[in-house]
Design brief:
This protein is mainly β. It is built from one helix and seven strands, in the order βαββββββ. It starts with 11 loop residues before the first strand and ends with a strand.
Length: about 120
């Protein structure tokens, strides 16, 4: 039997659109895998030369309706989060811009789970 402590509450949701009507695919931990779109898949960025960007929208879905401070973290040195909301009130939607600049010696593709936000939840 699962205990309540083993269920991770969903704090953030990610969307294709600013109105938060089209949710992006995510894993069981609600992590969104970055997708730079069909153009980037057809013509991957040239290592050491190109930078590609993509936009997602994030909504604060904290179950206690708490505001959250977002601090971006990437586990891949070639991936940066170049625009994001510092603080999201409950239900508020913010724009997130990802930039991928593969280093000149890179051979592996960008993998899922290579980024997240450290969330600082404020008490109400």
């Amino acid at each position: 039997a699962r205990t309540m402590s083993s269920i991770t509450p969903r704090l953030l949701s990610y969307y294709y659109d600013a109105e938060a009507t089209r949710e992006l695919p995510h894993d069981s931990s609600y992590n969104y895998s970055i997708d730079f779109g069909p153009e980037a898949r057809a013509n991957p960025p040239i290592a050491g030369q190109d930078t590609i960007t993509t936009i997602a929208y994030v909504r604060n879905d904290h179950p206690n309706k708490a505001p959250m401070e977002l601090r971006p973290s990437t586990m891949d040195p070639d991936l940066k989060i170049i625009e994001y909301p510092d603080i999201l009130e409950h239900g508020q939607i913010g724009k997130v811009v990802f930039a991928f600049s593969p280093s000149s010696n890179r051979i592996k593709p960008l993998s899922g789970g290579s980024w997240d936000f450290h969330k600082v939840v404020y008490s109400l």
